[in-house]
Request: fold
Amino acid sequence: MSCWLWVTVNGQDANYWSAAYNPAGFLSPGSAVAFTRDSGVLYFNPALLAYNTKNSATISGSVYQLNSLKIRNGAGDGYNLSSSNVGIIPAMASGILSVKGRKRFTLGYALIHNPVISYQATQQLDGKLNVLDDSYSAGPENFLAQYSVQNIINETSGLVGTGFQLSPHLAFGLSVEAQYREQHTQENYSARALINGVLVSGLPPLSNVEQSYLISHYNVGIKFKAGLAYDKGKDHFGLTITSPLAKIKSSGQLLSEYIVTDLRTSPTDTLNFLASTRQTKLKEKWKMPVSIAGGYAHDAEWGQLYVSAEYFFSVKEYNIITPRPAAFIRTNDDDNFFSSDLLKFKDARRSVLNVGVGLSHALSQDITGFAALRTDFSYADSSRYEDQEDGYVSNTSNYDIYHLQVGANIKRRKFNLRAGLLLDYGHTSQFLPSVNMTSANESNLLTGDIRPVRATYLSIGLMFAYIHNL
Reply:
């Protein structure tokens, strides 16, 4: 009987392989598609449960991790957006029940927590900029702009799987996973410019722009996985197919407001604008595509070589949240206007193929070293949206990430202790921010001219796993 301490890592919101529990998380116990002779309590491929014939139960798991995301010039030239956090992240509790009978089979169960992303950043510009036309406000104006953004996603899953042998070399498994996913996204921007050369009651008038958008939603869904495992001698093969996520229950809410006050769009035209809405109990969708994973492991005198890959199919553009046709743009004649395209919360994904490789090496009779490297390509693709100007995109990240794991397993008669270092790195020069405060003017409603900037993601973590033989 055994107990494992499971771990995961904080990932990004447009990448499938950020969590350690994936087909290439070789250092994490049981995170493999082919048989790696690992005695973890639950396997990514449920067919591998057939090779574990002992009852097991888990204790808690955690990972110590530092995450940092820096978007250079993310709010304007010289105004970076930075987000960092340090956490102790619980991961998985799981167990195995081996059922004896005419045909022995094994049941596995798990509760998994995955903090997908926790991104929060703020920035402020307070200075003299020439943001208003000199025809009515000569020279640089006192300009004050503030920007804040937040995106927090958490997932919790309950999983049950079973595996049994079809023949001495072939095993089959099935698993079902119920997932609860919640997301809170908020973006706020305000910009004010004091108009030069005019005083009203002894004070200068101002042009004002305010924008706010808040989305909160949750989804309860279910997906299924089927797996095969073939083992003969030193060679081990595995294959899984995972279904799309089917919705059980979901809901969302929206709060948004746009205000423009005394902003001249030309020397003779002044814009004043108010739009505001709050909507609750909105219909929500969250999609996960079909994926196919394969793996191969080869036993050698020095240890084991493991390679794996998983292909995720594309997802066409769809709305996670579609607002109802309620009043939004306000007027004095009770003829309020609404456009759901302005406030929709949308998603679209390109197909992705991730690959990974792992090595285990016997350093001594009781110590085995592990090293693994995997890709984690982003599925974000702005070209898949019909109109990039309408609505809000659900993900923050759009960069590829590369994951390195290095660690060791210490084996004793009563227990195994596994520890490792996790390093994640991602970058892009095509991150598209929402504002550019340093290029604000009337023609862009004081939000600035948007252009791609550079974003860098770095994560460093410590993983611990423990198995106790009862």
Notes: Residues 46-124+153-175+227-252+287-436+443-468 form a domain with the Porin fold (CATH 2.40.160.60). The radius of gyration is 27 Å. The longest strand covers residues 141-167.
